[in-house]
Write a structure and sequence with these properties.
Distance between the termini of chain B: 29 Å
Number of strands of chain B: 2
Order of helices and strands of chain A: HEHEHEHEEHEHEHEHHEEHEEH
Largest sheet of chain B: 2 strands, antiparallel
CATH topology of chain B: ABC transporter involved in vitamin B12 uptake, BtuC
Strand order of the largest sheet of chain B: 1-2
Shape of chain B: globular
Radius of gyration of chain B: 18 Å
Number of strands of chain A: 12
CATH architecture of the largest domain in chain A: 3-Layer(aba) Sandwich
Strand order of the largest sheet of chain A: 2-1-3-4-5-11
Helix content of chain A: 40-55%
Oligomer: heterodimer
CATH class of chain B: Mainly Alpha
Number of domains of chain A: 2
Strand content of chain A: 15-25%
Largest interface: A-B, 46 and 43 residues
Largest sheet of chain A: 6 strands, parallel
CATH architecture of chain B: Orthogonal Bundle
Helix content of chain B: over 70%
Structural class of chain B: mainly alpha
Structural class of chain A: alpha/beta
Distance between the termini of chain A: 70 Å
Number of helices of chain B: 11
Shape of chain A: elongated
Radius of gyration of chain A: 22 Å
CATH class of the largest domain in chain A: Alpha Beta
Order of helices and strands of chain B: HHHHEHHHHEHHH
Number of helices of chain A: 11
């Protein structure tokens, strides 16, 4: 039995040691915090754009921390030791941890971050116009004013809005306050439901849904993962569901207002190309947002949620 | 690579020592060590304006608060330890949110010396104190309680204090580790404790696999944590697809258990260490 286990382990080690070799390609590390469709889209956008510009020139190695911060730290240590030409980080925590570790180790490897909603607040950079050091990236921005205007345009009699979000996700508390402020300006009230896990959604949202005129979801991995439950509730009570991403209408939300996730990868790749091809120092490349906002509607879902689209 | 392993192992060493006390010596199903780790970081964050020794004490105190809570549930309210730990985790999650005010907060302490020196210094102090403590009557008392919780009662002694002392000490160590991790990464995060228990179990199992002793020994967590991070770094270097890292870790535990502890009879509450 012991020999069998050792043989299996040896085989496993041999298999994993047969990893890809970079050859003469430029090695680029991609650090992603967890497996998630949106994050995969960002990674895909980054790789595709890099490949289109310089086919076969780059070798990408993806490090996935699987939601484990200790593992993420180990991966960053590994990235720091290997001679990567550039590091592409996805999300706030991966970006912050990478910049912190690289700074402490005094490493000069360029870092391009993406999908960070407040890079100055999280001390990743000191200025958006002139980030300094070896860091540049793409900022995440939401336009709640436009999003809510689009919602009000299709349902004029909204008085109470229900917002479901996970306060543990970075930056969402700030977004919640922003939504509350805008709604107040429109003489509407906001009811918030905080859910930390998808399995809490049904129990926590049900008591409030009947008194709401619309339901809003932020760019929230937890809530978007459990969107099907919210869709069912909204259909049952004929309340429009407004999401802040463009994939949710395909899953049953009446509206989705936001940017395509793949664009974060594409924008990140453009900055990486500026560093690798044009030779620009990362610290001189300004931080830019993905600003190509789109309103997507699902007519069938809208009908089920009490909205008649023209 | 060696420096990197050393740095990561030194950050996690207090946590593994703490887990060794509660999970292995006291043989408690102590899921709340994850909360002690988190709350230690939060307490240090709250005390960040104070001098470093007080920040360290605050981190240790934060961990101990979690330990005191779970002991209170278990010993005073007579809630089973596992359930008490789960309840504590829920309470601490809310308390952490209240204290932090947000899910992620930047955390930067400026030291007049290299951060690695702090890690090494703390590790040496912990190893000396805990090393002596563990080979004294204290360590043996914890091990006796783990093997037979009724031993002290049968000798007209209260085992409650042994449990309390062991849990407070273990959780205090976990709190220090939480602080070191947060300081090292530059932020305190509500989810920084996810997956910590698996790390603790794996490291202690590895330590016990290499050091086959039935006596309390500080070398168990020490060897365990260094071997764990060496293996992890090695796998990363070899290009293991990290999508499957958690599965690999679970498989690793199974292999270690089947190789090293086949004759050990595990009860429902035991975590294999």
């Amino acid at each position: 039995m012991k020999q069998l286990i050792f043989m299996c382990l040896s085989l496993l080690l041999i298999l994993i040691s047969c990893g890809q070799s970079a050859g003469n390609k430029i090695p680029i590390a991609i650090l992603t915090p967890v497996t998630h469709p949106s994050l995969e889209q960002i990674e895909k956008g980054f790789k595709q754009t890099m490949e289109i510009n310089n086919p076969g020139k780059y070798h990408f190695v993806t490090y996935n921390a699987q939601g484990n911060k200790m593992l993420m730290r180990s991966e960053i240590e590994e990235i720091a030791q290997k001679d990567y030409t550039l590091v592409f980080t996805i999300g706030t925590l991966a970006s912050q941890m990478t910049t912190e570790v690289f700074e402490k180790k005094n490493l000069k490897t360029p870092i391009v971050f993406t999908c960070v909603n407040d890079p100055i607040g999280f001390k990743i950079i000191s200025s958006e116009q002139y980030p300094g050091g070896n860091v540049t990236g793409v900022k995440e921005m939401l336009r709640f004013e436009e999003e809510l205007t689009a919602l009000i345009k299709h349902k004029t009699d909204i008085k109470n809005v229900l917002l479901v979000y996970n306060p543990a996700e970075p930056g969402l508390q700030k977004d919640q306050k922003e939504v509350e402020r805008i709604l107040k300006e429109h003489n509407m009230t906001l009811q918030t439901v905080e859910a930390f896990q998808t399995n809490e959604l049904l129990a926590k949202v049900s008591p409030f849904i009947s008194s709401a005129d619309a339901l809003i979801v932020l760019k929230d991995n937890t809530v978007v993962s459990g969107l099907d439950i919210l869709v069912k509730l909204c259909n049952r009570h004929q309340i429009p569901l407004m999401a802040s991403d463009l994939d949710s209408p395909d899953r049953g939300a009446a509206f989705g207002y936001g940017v395509y996730e793949i664009d974060f990868g594409i924008e990140g790749a453009k900055k990486a190309l500026q560093i690798l091809v044009q030779g620009m120092p990362p610290g001189t490349i300004p931080i830019t947002p993905v600003a190509d906002f789109t309103l997507r509607m699902n007519p069938d879902a809208a009908k089920r949620q009490g909205i008649q689209l023209p | 690579m060696i420096f990197s392993i050393l740095e990561q192992a030194l950050i996690a060493l207090p946590l593994i020592i703490g887990a060794y006390f509660t999970l292995s010596l006291l043989k408690l199903p102590d899921f709340s060590i994850e909360s002690a780790y988190l709350f230690g970081a939060v307490s240090a964050f709250l005390a960040q304006e104070l001098p470093l020794p007080l920040v360290l004490l605050s981190a240790m105190g934060g961990g101990m608060v979690v330990g005191a809570m779970v002991c209170f549930f278990n010993q005073i309210l007579h809630i089973p330890f596992l359930l008490g730990a789960i309840v504590t985790n829920g309470l601490i999650h809310g308390l952490t949110q209240y204290c932090l005010g947000t899910s992620v907060s930047s955390f930067h302490l400026a030291f007049p010396f290299n951060e690695f020196n702090l890690l090494a210094g703390l590790a040496i102090i912990l190893l000396i104190f805990m090393g002596f403590g563990i080979r004294s009557q204290l360590g043996y008392s914890l091990a006796i309680y783990g093997n037979n919780p009724h031993f002290f009662d049968n000798h007209q002694l209260s085992g409650r204090y042994v449990l309390l002392f062991g849990v407070l000490l273990g959780h205090g160590c976990a709190g220090i580790s939480g602080f070191l991790f947060a300081q090292s990464n530059g932020f305190v995060d509500l989810t920084m404790n996810f997956g910590i228990l698996l790390l603790c179990l794996t490291a202690i199992m590895v330590g016990k696999f290499f050091l086959k002793t039935h006596r309390p020994n500080i070398l168990v967590p020490l060897i365990g944590v260094f071997v764990f991070f060496s293996i992890q770094q090695l796998l990363l270097r070899m290009g293991l697809n990290l999508k499957y890292f958690n599965a690999f870790q679970a498989l690793f535990i199974l292999v270690i258990l089947s190789l090293g502890h086949r004759k050990q009879t595990l009860t429902l509450d035991h975590l294999g260490v």
